[in-house]
Design a protein that fits this description.
The protein is an alpha+beta fold and 169 residues long. It has 4 helices and 9 strands; from the N terminus they run αβββββαβααβββ. It has one domain: Pnp Oxidase, Chain A. Helices cover 15% and strands 36% of the residues.
């Protein structure tokens, strides 16, 4: 093993599963953010942690409403995932721009993201400060799965897909 700059070692973490989160601002406008940092933190109760930069619109939305949805996109959602990771919900309606109809959630106001393998409704329990990102921990209060059999989307070699759609990070 040889020591290298940290930034040179980070690509060795790939492939990274792509995760989407939906949230809503305090006026009820829904939004989608693409995440590379998400994990399940507990079984009883089921909890998820997501990491979002403090300057992001989605950070404000989750902080203000106390809820979010964790969703796992399929491999054919690469282009949409790239778009939702690059554009700000402050400026555009990502559901509309991606031709997605927000689906009503069962236990929270934030909508589900159609086409995903699974959507997990979460109520915010904790926020932790970590450098330039916050970690939000939410308890899962409902779950929804797709009946379609499709593969999950991953970041491979800095590309947001499995088949060449997308752009370098």
């Amino acid at each position: 093993m040889k020591e290298v700059p940290i930034k040179d070692a980070l690509p060795k973490k790939r492939p990274i599963p792509v995760t989407l989160a939906s949230c809503m601002d305090k006026n009820g406008k829904p939004n989608i953010i693409t995440l590379g940092w998400e994990m399940q933190t507990s079984i009883k109760p089921v909890m998820f942690a997501i990491s979002i930069g403090y300057t992001r619109y989605s950070y404000e939305c989750i902080r203000d409403t106390g809820e979010f949805v964790v969703a796992y996109p399929t491999e054919d959602m690469a282009e949409m995932s790239v778009y939702c990771g690059k554009e700000s919900g402050r400026d555009v309606d990502k559901f509309k721009e991606c031709n997605l109809e927000p689906l009503p959630a069962a236990r929270i106001k934030t909508p589900l993201i159609p086409g995903c393998l699974a959507n997990f409704e979460c109520k915010l329990l904790h926020e932790y400060e970590t450098g330039d990102h916050a970690i939000f921990v939410g308890e899962c209060v409902a779950a929804h799965v797709s009946e379609e059999k499709k593969g999950r989307l991953y970041i491979i070699d800095g590309i947001y897909d499995l088949g060449g759609v997308g752009t370098k990070e």
